[in-house]
Amino acid sequence: MKQPAADPAVAIEGLKMHFPVYKGVLRKKAGAIKAVDDVSFTIRRNETLGLVGESGCGKTTTGRCVLRIYRPAGGRILFEGRDITALPERKIKPLRRKIQYIFQDPYSSLNPRQTAGSIVGEPLVIHNLVRGRGEYRERVAELLRMVELDPAMAGRMPHELSGGQRQRLAIARALSCEPSFVVCDEPISALDVSVQAQIMNLLDELKEKRGLTYLFIAHDLSVVRYISDRVAVMYLGRIVEIAGQREIFESPLHPYTRALLSAVPIPDPFIEEKRERIILKGDVPSLANLPPGCVFHPRCLEAVPECAEIVPPLRSAGAGHE
User: Fold this and answer.
1) How confident is the model over 45-78, as pLDDT tens digits?
2) Which residue among 31, 77, 153, 316 is least enclosed by CB atoms within 10 Å?
3) What would the DSSP string read from start to end of 150-219?
4) Could you tell me which of 83, 149, 92, 94 has the C-alpha nearest to residue 119?
């Protein structure tokens, strides 16, 4: 496996994304949903950072902010050393070649009125990467072969393809501009288990061949363990723990991380029967009405009175473990 470079491809500093809530006929602002609140992390070149957490914790919003699909409410986004947080849209467009997104549902993210070849080839036209129809067709065929699809499928419509083939098509589209950074937003959650393994192996192979950097968003911890170099655990818009893949799975320190890992089934009935299950109390609070202090304290089995008053910052717990 190619080792990640020391310098970061992406650096996130104090990222915030708050969505306003309006009420009444006059649509007055009544509050805000703090989907992402003071998130910081870095992703080194040629590295896969897995971002995990429960549904609604802000994983997808974080990914879309990083790509500037959303304009953040605060913080900084540095891509290859350049601050892209406040860039206007006309200056963001050239960056789209370098930063791409693979969506969760391959069917809804593909235009049902376009052929497979047109879907893959459209970015080539938008960014003026080919000259003439011959080069266009050759490049589309090359991209389809790259994701292990027959170039003869170029004339098919999305509904004529299986789920796995549609996701391969989405990957080919994302890589058509030869990006260096890709956000993979739960790219295998809508697929059968047997197809999931194929797509994960394909993503891993493409990363090695093309020197890609991934932000891999998922809620399936076994998938994250397989594909990630480092893992960040998110809860209600905040990063609660971040470390190397092995450290997270073998020596989790945050009570939420330990609770998540205890819910992962182990394919050994004897170990499964004896291991401790951590059952969290209560329900996940609303992002529109977050508890004071540590957002996890109402459900935490280790909470003390100070937890309701102080927002704990990430602190070092060893080499690369926060």
Assistant:
1) 999 999 998 888 899 999 999 999 999 999 999 9
2) 316
3) -GGGGG--GGGS-HHHHHHHHHHHHHTT--SEEEEESTTTTS-HHHHHHHHHHHHHHHHHHT-EEEEEES
4) 149
* 3-class state of residue 146 by DSSP: helix
Cβ neighbours of residue 158 under 8 Å, at least 6 residues apart?
107, 110, 111, 112, 114, 116, 119, 166, 169
5 has a pLDDT exceeding 70? no
Which of 251, 287, 44, 305 shows the shortest CA–CA distance to 241? 251
DSSP line for 16-50: EEEEEEEETTTTEEEEEEEEEEEEEEEEETT-EEE
pTM of the model: 0.89
Are 293 and 308 within 8 A, CB to CB? yes
- Residue 321 CA from chain centroid, whole number: 20
- Spatial distance between the Cα atoms of 165 and 13, rounded to a whole number of angstroms: 37
CA distance between the termini of the chain: 25
Buried (b) or exposed (e) across 81-116, using 16+ Cβ within 10 A?
Answer: eeebbebeeeeeeebbbebbbbbbbbeebbeeeebb
Q: Give the three-class secondary structure for 147.
A: coil
Span 225-256, pLDDT tens digits: 889 999 999 999 999 999 999 999 989 999 99
Question: Considering only CA atoms, which of 163, 162, 155 is closest in space to residue 137?
Answer: 155
